[in-house]
Amino acid sequence: MSRYRGPRVRIIRRLGALPGLTNKTPQLKSGYMNQFISNKKMSQYRIRLEEKQKLRFHYGITERQLLKYVRIARRAKGSTGQILLQLLEMRLDNVIFRLGMASTIPEARQLVNHRHILINDRIVNIPSYRCKPQDFITIKDRQKSQAIITKNIDCSQKYKIPNHLIFNSLQKKGLINQIIDRESIGLKINELLVVEYYSRQA
Q: Which cell locations does it reside in (predicted)?
């Protein structure tokens, strides 16, 4: 299944706030319809499916990529759900978003694809690149790159940078100082339900 490129508001109307997908807020069309949807009894399968879809759409990954991350998390020591979230949070496109250098993860992915981002002074154009503690993230020394990032930083001042990241707004330089903890995940998600969803596939 390919990456979703359709209307984003439709997704957050169904699944709730997904800051990585879009910073828009949906307008409720009908109070009756929303009350009807919320009162409708949901099956256990649908509950797990929706939690899985939240991860997919928030981080902007394909079904195949998410299944791959679940399998990696299962092989690692510790809580599978927590390790899964850490793997997703340490993706380069998500780190750029969390530093405030992009307003959404798709926008961060575009910055990486267009070679605006450097890690430890080397250009990295792979959005799924797994960042590590002590990695420095900087911007290519070009006027266009600097202008894009400056505009994004000014627009994202309202978001708090999580504890595992440090950002110098003057130098436009980010540092990953540790692996993210569960409390700093910027998404309301029950990761155990996602692990259960994939229990027969992973």
A: Plastid, Chloroplast
